[in-house]
Design brief:
There is one protein chain. This protein is 10% helix and 56% strand. The protein is mostly beta strands. The protein has one domain: Porin (Beta Barrel). The chain has a 15-stranded antiparallel sheet that branches.
Amino acid sequence: MKIKLIQYLTAVALMAGMGLVSSGVNAEEDRSAPPQANASGESSEELAMKLQNPVANLISVPIQNNWDFGIGSVDAMQYKVNVQPVIPFSIGDDWNLITRTILPIIHSESAVAGGADVNGLGDIVQSFFFSPKAPVGGWIMGAGPVFLYPSASDDALGAKKWGAGPTALLLKQKSGWTYGVLTNHIESFAGTSGRQNVSATFLQPILSYTTKTYTTFGLNTESTYDWQISQWTVPINATVSQLVKLGQQPVQFTLGGRYYPEKPNGGADWGLRFVVTLLFPK
């Protein structure tokens, strides 16, 4: 059942990708014309820039497919689907609350010869950003708590710990460029006894450029420092994204690759990424 669920999500992503070709809607639109606005009055260019802002006032649902290769002594592969809904809420005239949830569904091949593969749900991470509606001095800001939920369906896929900590974002957007940093730190405070405590810092410097044709070229790291074992895991990601419309539905497709210059012993060497992001402008 778990394998079928992973296969289903992959099929949905692939069918959406094929829809980009078969529909032909806006795929070949006249780029010399003014940017077209959606029902909310926002242009495609504005939506493309909002997608580079983790605390934008925009409902989106990225379905992020990740493949990592070269794991362990047998060069095993791990496939992870991160379902990542982003939902903003207005709280007064000046502030938004943005929730960002990461729900991982994992297929992990055994990293040793003769071992068993593992499939299922991983631990959920959920962030809450309080963000001013207007940039402060040109900077987009957000901060709040982040939580770790022990939702893994198998001991091998999660920490079996409850965790919490702070998260923050500092970002600037100008002339198509987006640059800044997203960070959080999680400490475990409860959970299964006998399992290693969680003490991890996440650091994501962000750099991207969005063209007038709604294509975005991105470069970032999604680095984690594990304080329990004093070890960095540093994937460097390079991506290219394209915003299109399938009928009236704006969708962004992302392709990318990554390399791990720093990792634990037996960690992945390199990986691939394919993302389908559904947008729901207000």
